[in-house]
Amino acid sequence: MKKMKSLVSVMAATALLAGTIAGCGGNASNNAASTNGESTATETAEGTASEGAASGATFKIGSIGPLTGGAAAYGLAVVNSVELAVNEINANGGINGYQVEMKGEDDELNAEKSVNAYNTLKDWGMQFLVGSTTSACSLAVSENTHEDNMFQLTPSASAADCVNYDNVFRVCFSDPNQGLASAQYIGSHKLASKVAIIYDSSDVYSSGIYQTFAQEAPNQGFEVVSAEAFTADSKTDFSVQLQKAKDAGAELLFLPIYYTEASLILTQANTMGFAPIFFGVDGMDGILTVENFDTSLAEGLMLLTPFAADATDDLTVNYVKNYQEKYGETPNQFGADAYDAVYIIKQCLEEAGATPDMSVSDLCEAVKSTIVKITASGLTSETMTWDASGEPNKEPKAVVIKDGAYVTAE
Amino acid sequence: MAAKKRLRDNLITYGIVIALYLIMEILMKTGNLSSHLKGLLVPMTYYAIIAVALNLCVGILGELSIGHCGFMCIGAFSSAVFSKLTQNNIPTAPRFFLAFVIGIAFAALFGFLIGIPVLRLKGDYLAIVTLAFGEIIKNVINAIYFGVDSKGPHISMNNVMELGMEPDGQVVINGAMGITGTPRDANFTIAIVVLLLSLFVVLNLMNSRDGRAIMAVRDNSIAAESAGINVTRYKMMAFTISAAIAGAAGVLFSHNITSLTATSQYFGYNASIMILVYVVLGGIGNIRGSVIAAAILYLLPEMLRGLNTYRMLIYSIVLIVMMLFNWAPAAVQWRQKVAHKFIKRNA
Q1: Distance between CA A95 and CA A358 in Å, rounded?
Q2: Which range of residues forms the domain containing residue A37?
């Protein structure tokens, strides 16, 4: 029996070693077995047969986000949008005549796994990272991109620390910026003098916005009369928080949270006859698509967002139409940021005249020095500029929901 | 004879770890190791360490704990706070060593404090209390705001504004945002040294007088008590050591990743149960098995990345197959038959 046991453990150890060694050799096969993005990319490459495709060199863009689990909607939007943008670019002749390949990896909303995903993409030959989708993951990955000097453009990681390194830039607003912009908007438009807040204290995004909003409030001439938190473990019943806001006489309820919880808050506020002005941030985008939610409750809801899926400009209409055709869903602002990110990289590469045979580090330097000079235009803003800090300069758009659709607020 | 066999057994365990280390180092030095795998080495090792710690609690002490990630969380946060505060004052090597001392000490302290009420319970009750403990730790850390400025430390349980920090101050723990910017001091060599040390502690404990007393308590606490063994003392001893080793795993965790948040995917009960799965599949009470199971089961979903979302499905099937292969009576019989034939033929 004892002998048996040691036999099994020796076998297990061999299996383990075999597994790891197989993992080492896996590079080559990784290249062959990739996502649909790559296969469609090669197909289009055959069609256009440009100079770059002929020489076989391609730009490689990697993307990371949660593709499984509760936050999959965000990661899928990012990866799908990167794929969509890459396919479009390839169909139009690529970047500087070279085709583009993309590959998305799953991080399960786990910073540890996000680093693993990054390393997998690095083995694949990634030259630019559009990711990670979420703040904590992006922060962890930025440590690695900084070490490798790889250009990282995160579409949606909004925590302030995410762009600490000089090789990391972002497309979305940072949390502090959103809190600040919201407070300034409410202050300058004199929307209310008594404001209540309900936020998710277990969420980095939500508490980040809350912090700057509350700090800015006294400067903007309104008073925060109640600030109540909930956590990820208790996000179904908000009657206590709403009652406190109501008792404090709040005229405006600021909701720096995602739309799923916000839809519950709106429903519950309606049941208890509490009708302040509701004010949200970009996480609120998507509230009109919540199942079984009476969208008439969202009438008059204001939100600061860079993207609204039902905007009528050509770019948005095209993007939304193509996205819906390909993936059967309406894209959200995460996707829009990622779509813009790919085009921003394209613009930088064209400006710098870069080619795929440059090293990752050289490409990073080239893009890094160009991005601060360009003015990009995309889904999330008509003009976007960057400074070396990595923060984008763009105007937040305030929209209000009227007759079940977003209308630009005055 | 028995002692000799035990020694050989232990040496095999160390040997497997050292062999794995050498192979990985050689591959790394010759540039044959993919960066994906390189990144997996340290996490794999700290999960092996916490599996060893949990096996001490579940297998040797015989008490089911499903909140072990709570101790890992304490080790991670206490050491990260220390490293962050002393980042610019102490050189890396002694600082990381002190971080270990602090992380282990805090985890052991909490293990001891939790142990006082908890170890009076048995079986399911203990499991429930440890589960609750793990969740409490996570939620408390999520609510802590801690900063240091020229006037000394500030702490708040409400929000960062309440800290009333001077402009030169530094917010160390920022509630749900956790700790960011911990220096990345952990590497594979240090992780393997910690794994070997914890194996050394646990294996020697098992073969010592104290270890035999602990196992006697596990097998029959009434008989052990009547033989003059101080049941509470030995239970506390094993539980505290187990918590301390889990704390060491936490130190490696927080110094391997720059964004440390007390969220459920790292320190919740799901994570604790994942560790328990490593222990159960590796064999309860079999320390070597825990190390091997932790390594395989951590690597497996990563190695299956090429299969995209199907990897989750395959991972769970592998878990079921491993469980059946290890423990189903028919599988055990079949294994014995095969092994018997194999040994006969060789002999």
Answers
A1: 14
A2: 23-173+312-392
